[in-house]
């Protein structure tokens, strides 16, 4: 004699009387609970994964120092051979220290790798203003 199981509430009542086992069903998920399916990774909700915001670059040029005396003349700079790899020379410049007797300190030039192949370095410079000399920061353009 051949037996088989059929679905449905009425069939379940009859089949349980004759010894046929029904497959176990997981209970339905509760309100707000995640449904777990083997082998399936649940998607992240928008609230669970914060969207990173890129840092806001400062507006250029950035003014970093105002000093009353004129900076010394820029010395003759010898640019060393390029290390390669697209490195760009950033020339040296005078920095204001404000320490009596050594107000100005020379910051030597250096090679740096640009952020993109199309980037060009705009060197910083000292600019005379009514309140004194102001350093205008260098930046990538």
Tell me about this structure.
This protein is mainly β and 141 residues long. The protein has a domain at 63-140. Helices cover 7% and strands 23% of the residues. The chain is built from 1 helix and 9 strands, in the order αβββββββββ. The protein has one helix at 9-18, and strands spanning 63-67, 88-90, 93-96, 104-107, 110-112, 121-122, 125-129, 132-136, 139-140. It has a 3-stranded antiparallel beta sheet, with no helix packed on it. It starts with 8 loop residues before the first helix and ends with a strand. The model is unreliable at 1-18 (pLDDT under 50).
Compile the SSE list and pairings.
Blueprint: H1 9-18, E1 63-67, E2 88-90, E3 93-96, E4 104-107, E5 110-112, E6 121-122, E7 125-129, E8 132-136, E9 139-140
Antiparallel strand pairs: 1-8, 2-5, 3-4, 6-9, 7-8
What is the 3D form?
extended
- Provide the residue-averaged pLDDT: 71
What is the tally of helical segments? 1
Cα-atom radius of gyration: 36 Å
**Elements, N to C (H/E):** HEEEEEEEEE
Q: Would you identify the regions where 5 or more consecutive residues have pLDDT less than 50?
A: 1-18
Which strands sit side by side, in order, in the main sheet? 1-8-7
End-to-end distance, in Å?
Answer: 86 Å
Q: Structural class, judged by helices and strands? A: mainly beta
Largest sheet: 3 strands, antiparallel
Strand content: 15-25%
Number of E strands: 9
Notable features of this structure?
single chain, two-stranded antiparallel sheet, disordered N terminus, 141 residues, 7% helix, 1 helix, three-stranded antiparallel beta sheet, mainly beta
